[in-house]
Design goal:
Elements lengths: L2 H18 L30 H14 L6 H10 L25 H11 L6 H17 L17 H13 L15 H6 L28 H11 L25 H16 L5 E2 L13 E2 H13 L7 H18 L1 H14 L11 H6 L9 H51 L1
Antiparallel strand pairs: 1-2
Length: 423
């Protein structure tokens, strides 16, 4: 395995550990020291494989809560972008152009694109960065219409769904984004869908088909594909009125039907437990029935966006109980997942199982440029100052008026005396 592939493999391990809530130490290369987080970066753990990911997730969650990130935090994310518009997972030295052998990350690029959409600082740089990122995503689209983790890699459901969400969030029509072979991202997503008639995982999605074309259900991929198939993104709100989930094989495959089948599968997978289960990682023996906290949060967002928020109520209750402790260990991206799940389901991220998720997330990075509380206080102070100025103005003119009235009275008095003397 070459250096680039080792880095990618390590990044996938770190991403999987966040979804699962299981701490995993990944080493792509024998580095003497782990990368040191910058003051403008969220989280204190080694950012080598997830720096852009967790910064972008933090921004998205802050947007959901009305928080404006610090200018230096936005500047850090912008500096990670390469000249061609792509983002790597992380690069420590941003003083020089991206190295030719630096692996570019479609997931990081899609998340950064969506995250930058909602920030206010660095306005001109941000606009240019977004256009450049969209251009790179279009240019790195595979012939089947999807995206792989790195350009040139086979398409997978998760990467394709993230790209769809980023494009949809920034005003694009994903169904009109076509590859060199005329395929759209929705065409690619359909290739990952398992029929409802299948015995194993009916309605689910796979991350990628196996070497022999076998379709192994993957709840993490399913949650992403439900959002992507509906043309929605991570900041999508819950849909009402609620509707009953169903799994139906259409005569002619359609991506929305496949997405709704995926939602039905998630409802079944959550079951009476109220959470997804963590599949054993390759080469390990995970305990039976270990909960997948990150995947459950993703499922809540997907089900809420599909109009099945009532079926996610048990999962929300589970996350309120188990999520805060998991996020405390997982860091900013874990807190962000919980914030997005709370927002989508209509729960309060500022009182989620007794934890203020937004405050906890903010504490993992630089002080935000503003929060709703700060803006409300500033508005109240501004209104108070305006009222005081108005009252002061009224008092001033009342004083002037009293002097004028007194002057008029004296004038009349003197005038009357003068007329009396003339008589």
């Amino acid at each position: 395995m070459n250096t680039a592939r080792r880095r990618v493999a390590a990044a996938l391990v770190v991403g999987a550990s966040l979804v699962a809530g299981t701490p995993v130490v990944a080493h792509a290369d024998a580095s003497p020291k782990p990368a040191q987080p910058a003051p403008a970066l969220y989280g204190t753990k080694d950012p080598a494989f997830d720096g852009v990911y967790r910064q972008s997730m933090a921004f998205l969650a802050q947007q959901a809560a009305g928080v404006e990130p610090a200018e230096e935090a936005v500047g850090w994310l912008l500096a990670q972008q390469c000249d061609n518009g792509a983002f790597p997972s992380y690069r420590a030295d941003t003083s020089a152009p991206c190295a030719a052998d630096l692996p570019l990350d479609s997931n990081a690029t899609a998340l950064a694109l969506q995250a930058l959409r909602g920030v206010d600082s660095h306005e001109d740089r941000t606009a240019k960065a977004m256009e450049s990122a969209k251009g790179w995503l279009r240019g790195s689209q595979n012939k089947d219409g999807g995206w792989g983790y790195n350009p040139g890699f086979p398409s997978d459901a998760n990467s394709t769904a993230l790209a769809v969400g980023a494009l949809a969030a920034t005003g694009e029509q994903p169904g009109e984004v076509k590859s060199a072979d005329g395929k759209t991202p929705y065409d690619a997503l359909l290739t990952f869908a398992i029929p409802c008639s299948a015995k194993d995982g009916p309605g689910a999605f796979v991350s990628q088909p196996g070497e022999k074309g076998e379709l192994k259900p993957n709840e993490y991929a399913t949650a992403g594909a439900v959002l992507g198939g509906l043309g929605k993104h991570l900041l999508s709100k819950g849909v009402k009125p609620y509707q009953e989930p169903s799994c139906e094989d259409a005569d002619k495959p359609a991506v929305e039907r496949a997405a709704r089948n995926g939602a039905a599968h998630l409802v079944s997978a959550l079951g009476t437990r109220g959470h997804l289960l963590l599949p054993p990682m390759a080469g390990s023996e995970a305990p039976a029935d270990q909960p997948d906290i990150g995947g459950t949060a993703d499922a809540v967002v997907a089900l809420s966006a599909a109009g099945h928020g009532d079926k996610a109520a048990g999962a929300v209750a589970f996350l309120e109980k188990q999520g805060p402790a998991w996020a405390e260990d997982g860091g900013p991206a874990a807190y962000a997942k919980l914030v997005l799940a709370a927002r989508a389901s209509g729960a309060d991220p500022r009182d989620f199982g007794g934890t203020d998720l937004v405050q906890a997330l903010n504490a993992t990075g630089p002080k935000p440029a503003s929060t709703p509380e700060q803006r409300a206080a500033a508005k109240a102070e501004s209104g108070k100052k305006a009222q005081e100025d108005e009252n002061a103005g009224v008092g001033f003119w009342l004083t002037i008026g009293s002097f004028l009235l007194a002057g008029i009275g004296i004038g009349f008095l003197l005038s009357g005396r003068g007329r009396g003397k003339k008589k």
